[in-house]
Write a structure and sequence with these properties.
With 673 residues, the chain is of the alpha+beta class. Helix content is 53%, strand content 8%. It is built from 23 helices and eleven strands.
Length: 673
């Protein structure tokens, strides 16, 4: 930890002294082993030793333009630094696993990097959609930063509904070119990171036409700016979309086309092709285009784990330092972490972060397996992966946003300060509810798979492993408050909700509604069923994977981890008690016992709370918070940050002489109405 040599707040040190498990062991567990912890720390040490990456004056005091320019400057330094740290001893899977715990970027960019989509989407789309020749040509340029790119799918008038995209690409066989157009304002691309002023190339999703016929939505590699001057290419209209709740250094932009021509080979042709004469050869399976989207949604689980982990680290350390009220006369003010209401706010955040890490690693393993299967033409498990990625992305991002905001509120007024970094963390995490698939739409995507599975079960057919529980039509004979029993209860809830959806769809179609209208009329229930399924996955994976992955850990560490599993499971049982009452034999007495067990778990976790957040191993630079630093010197840091305000650079602001003094002396000339 980077602050071990500093003077530690006495209360925080006492918390660490009474921790009952090995913090370093848990850190290694989260990283995937001591080797990965060492490599992650080596990379962090290298990055944070570079001069110029840390801002002397917080960027919130800069103008919008200055913040972007400063972010570009730091992004270049970051690339130069990290570009020399590639570890060729790691497998592709190990590299991906290590990346899931990487947090250096969040330390340098409070609102993310303008090169964010170059790394996260641009190269991956070329890898997934380009043919062999295109991959060989473009990936070399991308990896060498000879070009800077982004990915443009969402439009001003269309987002998740990809088939509705209005940007057109019409093939001209005479010149062997595609002509790109934005036929109306709503066809303008809107939102891609880096698009406004940073990127010079872009993968554009466009409705494609050849020989007068629609060829569906296809991807194109488009140069949008001149490499020497960075001016927009002929027929390309570019700009920034403006200030947002967060992500203000990502350089989100808009993009329009007016008869912009590109060569035929700029269409990415791994799956679909248009021959020189205009003949369209369609993809053997439209689902092959899922790959990149699924990859991003899987990675979002890791982002939610890291982001929530940062927020709960800040709030837990602050709660150990902050003292408030005097419930017992003549006794010192207690640490607010001793209040059970505070433990209720924070400990579920710790448990949820662990649940997301475990689920992410599990889903990442499945993603790599399915990717290998796709390479040999096996698409049997792609639909299941897609359904899982959709509902887990939606549920974890929604939960994380709520829990991060709870962490901010748990810090009282100081959590409102930008110097706490909690407002910025919340702005970033809540964005995940809409990017890479708006959450309601994502849940409805999974609902389609659930409805299909429910129909297959009714016909005695086999369904995917993650939905196999739907085949068990029996009722729970008796409620079981163990973790396995609660998971079983949630399976009954999800199965019951899927059955209710099937009944509702059938009722509406029997009443003469079209299949589409029946779906819309049932959509509230469908979203609820999809979320219930996601709860089944999160709870069952957290429990089963923890059973397997903790076998080599010491008893003390295993104990505290299983307390988190129990806490997470019982928390959601209490949150969803209405559903359990509908679909399981749980009784009021059972609920009371669960509440008592839950409160008992809070008491058991309390001595380990600071140790648990220390185990996330987030450096002070990563937390970027006056409230959450390792040394716990909250009040000194708040004052230090306050003194960085430009308004504190002079004792008297010029507005006093210009406005306030004349007002007080009655010398202001009244404004005419």
């Amino acid at each position: 930890m980077d602050a071990v040599n500093k003077v530690i707040n006495e209360d925080l040190q006492k918390e660490r002294d009474k921790c009952k498990f090995n913090v370093a062991e848990l850190t290694a567990f989260l990283d995937g082993g001591d080797k990965f912890t060492q490599k992650r720390r080596e990379k962090e040490n290298r990055v944070f030793s570079i001069q110029g990456l840390r801002d002397a004056v917080p960027d919130e005091y800069m103008s919008h333009k200055e913040r972007y320019e400063n972010a570009v400057r730091k992004a270049v330094i970051m690339h130069q630094t990290l570009g020399t740290l590639e570890d060729k001893t790691l497998t592709e899977y190990e590299t991906a696993r290590l990346a899931l715990r990487a947090t250096t970027s969040s330390a340098i960019f409070k609102e993310n990097s303008p090169l964010m989509l170059h790394y996260s989407m641009f190269a991956n789309v070329i890898e997934g959609q380009g043919d062999e020749k295109q991959r060989e040509y473009w990936l070399k340029k991308i990896n060498n930063m000879e070009i800077i790119g982004t990915y443009a799918q969402t439009e001003l008038g269309h987002g998740t509904f990809i088939r509705g995209l209005e940007t057109t690409a019409e093939y001209d066989p005479k010149t062997e070119e595609f002509v790109l157009n934005s036929p109306k304002l709503t066809a303008y691309k809107w939102w891609p990171g880096g698009l406004a002023h940073t990127a010079n190339h872009c993968v554009v999703m466009a409705h494609t036409y050849s020989q007068g016929k629609s060829c569906g939505i296809q991807p194109f590699m488009v140069q949008i700016r001149d490499l020497e001057t960075n001016m927009p290419m002929k027929g390309v209209k570019l700009g920034e979309i403006g200030a947002k709740l967060g992500f203000n250094t990502v350089n989100n932009g808009f993009l329009g086309f007016e008869n912009h021509r590109i060569p035929r080979d700029r269409m990415l042709m791994k799956n679909s092709q248009i021959l020189k004469d205009g003949t369209f050869i369609s993809s053997p399976n439209s689902k092959l285009t899922y790959g990149t989207m699924v990859y991003i949604r899987v990675s979002i689980l890791g982002t939610m784990a890291n982001t929530l982990g940062r927020a709960v680290t800040i709030a837990t350390r602050y709660a150990a330092v902050r003292r408030q009220s005097q419930p017992k006369p003549n006794e010192p003010e207690p640490q607010i972490l001793d209040y059970v209401t505070q433990q209720h706010k924070l400990f579920i955040g710790i448990a949820s972060s662990h649940a997301y890490y475990i689920s992410c690693f599990w889903l990442w393993t499945l993603y790599h397996r399915v990717t290998k299967e796709l390479a040999v033409g096996n698409m049997d498990n792609l639909a299941e992966l897609h359904a899982l990625a959709c509902c887990l992305k939606a549920t974890t991002s929604a939960d994380a946003a709520v829990l991060v905001e709870r962490c901010r509120l748990a810090c009282g007024g100081h959590g409102y300060m930008l110097s706490s970094n909690l407002p910025q963390i919340y702005a970033n995490v809540t964005a995940a509810n809409t990017y890479e698939g708006e959450n309601t739409v994502m849940l409805l995507q999974t609902a389609r798979a659930l409805v299909k599975a429910g129909m297959q079960v009714a016909q005695g057919q086999k369904v995917s492993p993650s939905m196999a529980y739907l085949a068990d039509q029996s009722k729970m004979a008796k409620w079981d408050s163990s973790v396995d029993g609660i998971v079983k209860g949630f399976q009954k809830v999800a199965a019951g909700k899927v059955a209710a959806c099937l009944a509702s769809l059938q009722r509406h179609t029997n009443n003469g509604q079209s299949a589409e209208d029946a779906w819309n009329l049932t959509s509230v229930q469908l979203v609820a069923a999809s979320e219930a399924h996601a709860r089944v996955i999160l709870l069952s994976v957290f429990k089963s994977e923890m059973d397997v992955q903790t076998l080599t850990l010491s008893g003390e560490t295993r104990t505290v981890l299983f307390q988190l599993v129990q806490l997470y499971t019982i928390y959601w049982a209490l949150e969803k008690v209405g559903d359990l009452l509908l679909y399981t034999p749980i009784s009021g007495k059972d609920v009371q016992q669960l509440q008592q067990t839950y409160e008992g778990l809070l008491a058991k976790i309390r001595p380990n709370a600071v140790g648990l957040v220390d185990a996330f191993d987030f450096r002070d630079e990563v937390l970027n918070s006056a409230l959450g630093a390792y040394d716990g010197r909250v009040y000194e840091r708040l004052m230090d940050e306050a003194m960085k305000s430009p308004l504190n650079a002079e004792p008297v602001n010029e507005s006093f002489h210009k406005y306030l003094k004349p007002l007080m002396q009655g010398k202001l000339v009244p404004h005419k109405l």
